Amino acid sequence: MSAQGVIEIHVGRGTVQAPAQHVSNASALRAALMGFYLAFREHVLATSGGLTTLVLDDPQDLLDYDNRQRLARAICQLATDGAQIIATTHDRSFARTVVQEARAADLIAHHAVHPVNVSRATLETSPAVDELDRKRQAFVANPDGASQAQDYVNEARIFIEARLGDLFDDPAYPAHSAPTRAPTLVPLFDRLRALVSGRSNELFKSPILASFCNDPGMAPGAEARRILNQSHHDKASISYVDVAGLDADLKRLRVGIERVHGEFRRYRWREPLTAEALTNVAALVPVRAPVFNVPVSQDIAAFAGHLPSGGSQQAGDELFSSAWFDDKALFYIRHDTMGFAVPAGSVAIVEADATTVRDHSLVVARRGPQAFARRLLRPRNGEGFSLAAEATDPRRSRPTLAFEDHGIDTHRVVGALFGHLPPPEGREEATEILGDPILARVEIAYRVREDSAVPLALPGQVILGGGVLTAAELARIEGRIVALTLDDGTSILKRVGSPVSSSLPYLRQFETIGGLGDSAVIATEAVDGAPDLPVMAYARPIIGVIYDY
Predict the structure, then answer these.
(1) Cβ neighbours, 10 Å, residue 257
(2) I need a labelling partner for 402 at 20 to 30 A (CA). Which of 129, 288, 376, 423 fits?
(3) CA-to-CA distance for 136 and 125, rounded, in angstroms?
């Protein structure tokens, strides 16, 4: 610390040093300051005592991916050591990372924050999407469990109610920003329906809001409306059977209010809203997925440059459930239009509901009988969008297509399956299918770290794995991707290559996927006198990639 009380950080090697701000990037500087702050806090606690509460506002700002991961682990460790931490962030990816790190130890409550408005005198929190999904998973996993059913329907009510309450806060439109004495679910919903009927401004003309207001689950006299309202006044009287009959309604309302809230945020950000005219494209059919609930291993590395060692494959308490597929649909990808991310012959997992998709997202776009599997590009200034094909061989790329914002449904791609199905009938780039037999083979899930699997899988995404493969079985899947677990417990993500030579058949090449890392020679079995190389314990075929979980 300087004489003026300013913290000075220097970086050096040997006798050469310089101020850190001249030779380090913003992420390294921010991480160093965060580390100093946390170390100083420990010193103060050890020497003088003090408060254990920490309030962190967007602590991930300026940090790169690796430092965000370290910060998430540090926050979890602080909570384990007894600190009470309140962290706020606008970054949903970082929020999910913290949730994933802390979930195994059950150290976290994840909430969305809703601002003050004319009907809300203080900040309000509601369950985040993953919290509501956890409540539903507990409900599904406990047949006849009344308490789990009551918790699920009550959290669903709070989830919908809080997001509806955000819609009535713009003082520029007093017709809908006037205070209400009953900011609860049914009065808020009926008020929204009246405003949508009156089409009082651009937001209330949106077909997204109109579709939500016409949901049969919230019609007068509907059972879902009655039970949701009852959860506010007399939750204990609700039975498991009451909620079991409404599961489809609650899932649909959860998706609907998220779409409404997304439209509201676009309106506040002055971004283009969904086109007024709904398309006449038939609704997608949600996938028929076999029931499974598999552990998520927290440490698979698609390594870059070196083999990691000593990785932990403990699954912790995080599970990946087939319930994730409830609001998803499947499309067989016929042509090479999504590049390495979703190769031709694979199956794209999409959101069953059409939404306005952000720039550079992978989508399946439908117009009448046509279906395009491409990357969506939006102009920085202007309307409409383009669908660009990403071929693995640029010499065979298809021409880019341009569209207006209406007359076409866009479904965001949220994952891919690699089951190598026979092509269904049709000639479109994407063809809807009702299911994929490969889902019955899911036995484990892995969370990816590091980035040499790009663009197949990004850090933080989830890989679905199948049954254990023996060394002899690798020969028949050359060119396929596997999760390879080594004898030290580390797992890595690689493409199966050929044996090094006929004289050393137990030494096999395992290739990098995305070109950012290195290939490696690995022994598929332990052999006396063999070269000192990593040894495979077992391998699992990669069944699919889940982008958001």
Answers:
(1) 20
(2) 423
(3) 19
152-193 pLDDT, tens digit per residue, is 999 999 999 999 988 887 654 555 555 566 678 999 999 899
In DSSP terms, 54 is beta-bridged to 85
CA distance 218 to 161: 12
Dihedral over Cα of 441, 444, 448, 453: its sign: negative
Please tell me the total number of residues recorded for the chain in this structure: 549
- In the chain, the amino acid numbered 240 is Y
Pairing of strands 430-433, 124-127: unpaired
Phi/psi of residue 286, each to 5°? Answer: -55, 150
| Tokens linked to 479 | 């060119």
* Residue corresponding to tokens 């005219």: 277
The pTM for the full model equals: 0.57
Distance CA 416, CA 344 (A): 11
Is the torsion defined by CA of 204, 207, 208, 210 positive or negative? positive
DSSP 72: H
Tokens of 145: 């469990």
Residues ≥6 apart with Cβ < 8 Å to 488: 309, 310, 311, 534
- For residue 265, what is the enclosing H or E element? helix 247-268
Q: Which amino acid is at 38?
A: L
Residue with tokens 């070269």: 531
Taking the C-alpha atoms of residue 393 and residue 538, their distance in angstroms, rounded to an integer, is 33
Start-to-end CA span in the chain (Å): 43
**Closest C-alpha among 433, 254, 272, 233 to residue 346:** 433
490, amino acid identity = T
536 forms beta bridges with 486
* Cα–Cα distance, 61 to 503 (Å, whole number): 54
Does residue 197 carry a pLDDT above 50? Answer: yes
d(CA 319, CA 295): 4
Q: Is the pLDDT of residue 307 over 60?
A: no
Sequence-distant (≥ 6) Cβ neighbours of residue 516 within 8 angstroms: 304, 451, 452, 454
pLDDT of residue 429: 95
- Please compute Rg for the chain using Cα positions: 26
Residue type for position 16: V
Per-residue pLDDT at 237: 94
CB 409 within 8 A of CB 279: yes
pLDDT digits (tens, 9 = 90+) for 9-41: 777 777 777 777 666 777 888 888 888 888 888
Q: Where does residue 220 fall: left (phi above 0), alpha (psi -120 to 50 degrees), or beta otherwise?
A: beta
